[in-house]
Structure formats: C-alpha cells, structure tokens
C-alpha cells in the first residue's frame, strides 16, 4: 500500500469517526421525546448571591427541545463571578439540578454560590484552600454549588443521592450543596 493510499484511508476513517461522534453527541445532548416526557418540567429559578441577579427560565419544552436563548441566560447567571467569564454549562448538569429540585417538590429559587469558574479563579482557590479541586468540574461548566432557602441541606443531599447521578458534595458548615455531571460519587 502506498503512503498516499494510507493517508486517504486514515483521513476517511478520521472523518467518519468525527461525523459519528457528532451524531452521537447530538442525540445525547437532547433528550428523546419518550425520555423528555419522563422528566419534570424544564423550568428553574436562580439567584446569584455574588451579583444579585435573578433569572426564572424555561430551558426545555415538553418534547425535549432545549431553548438555546434560555440556556444562554443560564450560562450568564452561572458565569465566573470573579472574572465575569461566561462558559457553556453542561445541559446534563442543568437537568440534574432541575431533577433534584423537582424531587424535593418545589420550585424555589436556587441560590448560586459557584457555577462556572475560570481557570485563573480556580487556581486561586486551590492556592488558598485544600478544599478546591485542581481539576474541578466547575472549570468545565459541569458543576454548581448552591442552596435553596427554606430547604435543609441534608434534604437536598438525600434527594440527590437517591438519583445516583453525578457528584454530590455536602458542605454543611459552608452552607451549600455541590452537584456535578461527572460520575456518581459523594462526599
């Protein structure tokens, strides 16, 4: 086989693999209509404790379609409060938070402590504290630290643990819960 044929074959394989990956991610990024009917209403209310901003948003319709403008609004309110940098938050995280909140039977406002963290801000937190993770899901837009006024932190933690999805961190002294869209684990 000549080098030209090998490059063409490798290139074709790469293109096919990339196309397949995009198709797979496209299906994963949007719930199927059957799955969407099983999900609770796709509406959340946020209050960012650092900026004083509020947002009530319907991010998903009954058929499972995401409202991209609403997701942009969520990205904005969950931005790094230290640098103002906005990142794309993982829709799996948004669904996780929504499911935990709806499992608790409420639609109370979620008070955001930390959503997205810029790499600079995360590095600063790692220097200041052993509790901040060097490779934090926050830097990837896959984590949220929050509390819901009037709901015990223990109750939020229990609801999240029953779902057995993502990371569930419990910080009773600091007064918040951590959720992320990584593998299921708790601390």
Brief descriptors of the model:
6 helices; alpha/beta; single chain; 7 strands; 41% helix; 187 residues
What does the model show?
By secondary structure, this protein is of the alpha/beta class. It has 6 helices and 7 strands; from the N terminus they run H-H-E-E-H-H-E-H-E-H-E-E-E. The protein has helices spanning 3-29, 33-38, 68-77, 91-103, 119-128, 153-163, and strands at residues 42-48, 54-60, 110-114, 143-147, 167-171, 176-180, 185-186. Strands 2-1-3-4-6-5-7 form a 7-stranded mixed beta sheet. Strand 1 (42-48) and strand 2 form a beta hairpin. The N and C termini lie far apart (55 Å). The relative contact order is 0.12.
Taken in chain order, the helices and strands follow as HHEEHHEHEHEEE
Please compute the radius of gyration using only Cα atoms.
Answer: 19 Å
Main β-sheet, spatial strand arrangement: 2-1-3-4-6-5-7
First-last Cα distance: 55 Å
Count of separate DSSP helical elements: 6
| Biggest sheet features | 7 strands, mixed
* Helix/strand/pairing category: alpha/beta
Strand content: 15-25%
Mean pLDDT: 85
Strand elements, count: 7
Which residues form runs of ≥5 with pLDDT under 50? 1-8, 11-28
Q: Report the principal-axis shape.
A: globular
Helix content: 40-55%
């Amino acid at each position: 086989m000549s080098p030209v044929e090998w490059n063409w074959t490798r290139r074709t394989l790469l293109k096919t693999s990339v196309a397949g990956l995009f198709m797979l991610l496209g299906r994963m990024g949007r719930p199927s209509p059957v799955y969407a009917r099983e999900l609770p209403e796709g509406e959340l209310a946020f209050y960012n404790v650092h900026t004083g901003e509020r947002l009530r948003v319907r991010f998903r319709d009954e058929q499972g379609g995401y409202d991209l403008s609403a997701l942009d609004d969520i990205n904005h309110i969950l931005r790094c409060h230290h640098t103002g940098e906005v990142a794309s938050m993982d829709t799996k995280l948004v669904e996780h938070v929504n499911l935990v909140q709806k499992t608790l039977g409420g639609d109370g406002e979620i008070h955001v402590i930390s959503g997205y963290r810029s790499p600079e801000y995360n590095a600063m937190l790692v220097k200041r504290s052993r509790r901040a993770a060097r490779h934090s899901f926050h830097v990837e837009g896959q984590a949220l630290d929050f509390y819901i006024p009037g709901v015990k932190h223990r109750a939020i933690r229990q609801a999240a643990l029953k779902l057995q999805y993502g990371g569930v961190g419990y910080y009773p002294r600091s007064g918040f819960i951590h959720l992320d869209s990584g593998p299921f684990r708790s601390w």
